[in-house]
Model the fold of this input.
Amino acid sequence: MARRRSIVAMVTLAAIVLLTVTGLAVVADAVEENSAARGVPLPVIPRGQGENCVEDTDFMRRNHMTVLKHQRDETLLKGIRSKQHSLKECVSCHAVMGPDAIPVTAASPKHFCRSCHDYAAVNIDCFQCHASRPPLEVVVAGAGRE
Amino acid sequence: MSSKTDNPGGARGFDPGRRSFLGTAAAAAGVALAPGVFLYGVAASKPAIARELDVAASSAVRWGMLIDLNRCDSGCNECVSACAKENGLRGHGRPATDAQWIRKVDRHDPGTGLSQSLPMMCQHCAEPPCVDVCPTGASFKRADGIVLVDKHTCIGCRYCMLACPYKARSFIHEALEDQEPHAPRGKGTVESCTMCVHRIDDDRQPACVEACSDTGGGAMLFGDLNDPDSEISKRVAKYASQQIRADLGLDPGVRYRGL
Done:
């Protein structure tokens, strides 16, 4: 008799534990869904000109800052002006046209660099000094490329 | 000294083959008006070997300028405006603090009544005091003698501005917009004449020199002081020229003729 009673108690306990876990999971799911709905929208990253970037996209996503920093020191200190990793080339190739058919500056959230940096909440200091859009003559020359 | 006078040909003596080659090369490069006198066009000719994009500046080269004050007119401002246009220098109408890379200085000698005008900019010293005093190493001299500011490391302390005897440097007080892509400039950093380093790396002349020969008096000559065959070296060797405040021993790369 005592044995049967303890079995019933164990089953009841198991059921309670199971229900609690399931319930918590449901609540957690609801919270997650909610934050995705309210959270920062994924960035719309404009495509650059040409077929592909100077490096793999995955590599550039993780390492563009290192690549740019290396190139900046090579250029400024030694006068090496190879175009592969130059900020000027990035800015030219990834220029985003504004409504007036003139490339937007980093002041616009549509700017290529800003689209991602806004999402990641990382400040870009480059454009305090560097031009964030190509010079107009380059824009005119490259107009037929699209 | 006496050995030189005794043996004018030097230890190696005279090489007729080399001399005739140089003569042909010079004739091909410019117009000889008289023996030893050439048109300025020779000066504008490009160096024989242009540097590749991925090759670093070399200390075999020392860029410099020779400015002929007899050709520099007091009313002419072409070099200053060309510099401002090239490097995107736009003032705020406040001359005391607006950035200034090159300026015209007028001098008058009351004794003789001689009035002269000269362009004054960074003199690109071989021993730059701005580099000596910089606490972060931002102020530096490139291998080819051009003195620059690495604005990534400049903290804007302005010590270099105090150290420079030529008042060549400016501090940027206000946030800037729409800088030229080849001349990044920003608030909180010090800057000065770069000798148009972006043009030099592209095998072109500095903007002021180009403007001076195009629309000014043709007073400015740019070239490699280390190359004995360059027009500037020949001219410096032939005619007397001075460095401003040569007594300081800084060995500026900018020299003036007729000062």
